[in-house]
Every structure is written in structure tokens, then in C-alpha cells.
Amino acid sequence: MQKHLVIIGAGAAGLPVASQVRKKNKDIDITVITDRKYFAYSPCGIPFVFSGMITSFDTLVLRDKKYYSEMDINILNETTVDKIDLDTNEIFFGNEKLKYDTLVIATGAKPIIPPIPGINLEGIYFLNSLEDALKISDALKNTKSPTIIGAGAIGLEMAHAFLKKGLKSRLIEMKDRVLPNMLDKDMSNIVEDYLSSLNMNVHTSTVASSFIGSKEVTHVKANGNEFETDLVLVSVGVRPNVELAKNAGIETGITGAIVTDASLRVRRHGKYLKNVYACGNCIEVTDIITHKSTISALGSTAIRQGVLVADNILGKNSVFGSISSPSIAVIGELEVGTVGITKERALEYGISPIEGNAKGLTRAKYYPRGEDIYVKILSDSDYRVIGAQVISKEEVKGRIDAMALLIGRKTTVHQLATSETSYAPPISSALDPLTMAARKLIGSD
Questions:
Q1: Please, are residues 436 and 358 in contact by the beta-carbon 8 Å criterion?
Q2: Which residue in 22, 29, 42, 44 is the catalytic one?
Q3: pLDDT band for position 445 (50/70/90)?
Q4: C-alpha gyration radius of the chain
């Protein structure tokens, strides 16, 4: 009998499962179901369409329904799955049901909706899909004073995009710094200085307490002040989209996300199911530093997990290990990268971090067009590298990726401080800033 693979979710995790299985197996039936109209697009590119760096939202769509049809993959978009029956191996949507032999849950994440009075007023938006982006783009045509709640990566990228469109937005962040999940306060100050140079209006340590308006939002109340606004983008993070899985009896963990084994199989009644997998933003992963469960809401993580699930469906028995979640944000000309854990996160888990900071140049001092580069390295008491933060206008990604590799190999700061690095005046300084920060941490500088 021909086997049937059903995948719920057509994002960065679900679609790679379908594509990878089809490449190796031409016989299995594959159906992908998504409640969204648009699929197979890059959500990370959305802010750069708003800024004008990318010409249109259409450019972000990488594959269409015809492409998957030619691969013999059936895409059911704008279709909501109502129920999963793990006993009968069926899913239900509308008046229909579908039998599966293997099921993959890749339902992703949904935006956190803070319990702020007035949150349902017209003119308040969330950015979690291409559909959301199109609504915001249309609303911006009549906008003069936008407000962004949340100064994370998306909030800052969108604030800069609005600025490029001639709209000076007000940024409101409840924590004491921008990019609070990526950077420590000292590194965040560098980003805030850059935002100030762009005349961005940033309010940190500020809590939005209510949205005001009869039908449409007209003001935001924060720290006792009322700020006029005609569009609000709420960008305070996401949470795993797991209601469908929980209703089926699939277990979730302390993060609220789906629990899986190393092969990414789900658990019900304390037992892992052989034919049901989960991947992407809806599952828990293990932090390589703290060894605690966490969520990695990164497209790069989702793709890796999707490929791994496909391998396991095909009988490879691959496992997904602990992660350090290297990530990068590009705000105007500034690149901001992080990997591992921040000082705040370390202290939360009882780790007393040791810090090393360095400021260097991306090219030799005498070579033109070199940019300042700021590096921070964190270690534990055994001098094992547990985190790194890098800020510059160029050459950030390579250093963050290198640090992810070193963290994964449990490298010590002493090893980093004495490691070899390449040098050429047009592209580097003689002593790499990572090496400089490591030397300062161990007291060699």
C-alpha cells in the first residue's frame, strides 16, 4: 500500500520535510496543509521590502503551488486543520478527513498579544506573516506617526524601514535596553548610540499601559505619558503555536512548546510516537550552555530540523543536538550578532560569567574604509566560552558563525586567545578583535 505523509505547516520547517522526502522517495504521497494564503516565502526579508532595499513582496516568494505540484507534492493552502486523531491516524479539516501513515507538525509560532487595554483597536498590527505585511504596507499610505512596541530585532528593523519611508516612529521597550534578548546593556548602548545618530525616538524602561481611541487607535499611554499615533506595530515576541497538538494529547514542556526526542518524534502519555514528528518554532530544543529547554525561533534552526525529520522518515536515524542559536540583525548599516547566552541569561541559570570586551577595526588601521568593530565574549568559571556579541557595519556574520563552532566544541577562552587568524590589510587587522577580547578576559592584555 502506498504510504501517505501529511505535514501541517508550510514554513521553514514543513516545506523542507516535503522537498527532501520527495527527492529521495518518488512513491510516497505527500500533502502539506497550511492555513495561510502565502507559503514558501522568506519572512526575514519583509522589513527590507518596507525599507525599499527589496523591490516588492513578490520577490520574497521563492516557490509557488505549480512548483510543488510538479514535484508531486499536494499543497492545501488556506486550509485549517481542526483536529488530529492519533489513535486512528487521521486529521480533520472542515467536513473532510485525511488518513496519514506519517505526520509532521510544523505549526510554527504566533505573535504574543500583550493584555493591554485597547489592543483590539483598528490600526494596531502584528507582523507574523506576509498577509500581515501587506496589511501594514497598505495602512502606511495614510500614516504619519507610527509607534512600535518592542525593540527586538524585528522592531528595530521595521523602525529603520519606516525611517527610510520618511516616517519617524516612536519605539517603546519595557526593558532597559534595545535588543534585550541579544545583547547585554553595554553592547546595547552601542546600538542605541547608532539609533540616536539617525534621530530615532527610542524609549527604554517604558511600559505601554493602554491604547486609546474610540474605534481607531489615536494615542499610546506609556509611563504616564500619552503619545499621539495613527499606527501601532506590536512586536514583543512570539510563542509556539501548539493548541492543535495539545488538543490531540501531545505533550508540551516548560517553555510551552512541543516535547520531542532527539529524532524529533513527539510524546504522548509518556511515550514517543514512531510516526509523528514535530519541527520548527513549535518545539523545544536544548540550550548547549545551560542544558535547559528553550525555543529557537530562527529560520535557520527550522530548516535544519526539517531536513533532519525528512532523514528520519527515510530511515536514516539522525539526531538533533543542543544548540547555541547564532543570530544576526541588520539595522540600517549596522550589523548586530549574538551566539550563546547573554550575561543576564547566565545569571538566571546560576552561572557567574566572566567578560572580555574589545574594540578594533575591520581592516588595518592605515587602510581606507575600515569600520569600528565591538566584541564581547563571555565565559564560565572554567573559562569555557558561553557567549559572544559582535557589532559593526561589516564582518559580523563570519565571527558569530566562528564563535558558534567554538562554543559547540566547548572551546576555552585560553584556546581562543592563542588561536591563529589570517591577516590582510584590506579585510582584517593583524590581531582579530575576537582574539583581543579573549586576551582581555584572561588578563593577558
A1: yes
A2: 44
A3: low
A4: 23
What is 113-234's CATH topology? FAD/NAD(P)-binding domain (3.50.50)
Candidates 3.50.50.60, 1.20.1250.20, 3.40.1160.10, 3.10.180.10; correct CATH number of 4-39+59-110+238-313?
Answer: 3.50.50.60
Q: Which residues contact 94 (CB under 8 A, 6 or more apart)?
A: 79, 80, 82
Fold of 333-441: FAD/NAD(P)-binding domain (3.50.50)
**Contact criterion met (CB below 8 Å) for 442 and 416:** no
* pTM of the predicted structure, to 2 decimals: 0.94
Q: Do 5 and 28 touch, CB atoms closer than 8 A?
A: yes
Contact between 113 and 247 (Cβ < 8 Å): no
Which residues in 204-306 belong to E strands, given as ranges? 208-212, 219-222, 225-228, 231-234, 238-240, 265-268, 271-278, 285-286, 293-294
pLDDT tier at 443, thresholds 50, 70, 90: confident
Is 282 one of the annotated active-site residues of the chain? no
Closest CA to 361 of 374, 348, 352, 350: 374
Which residues neighbour 224 within 8 Å (Cβ) at sequence distance 6 or greater?
A: none
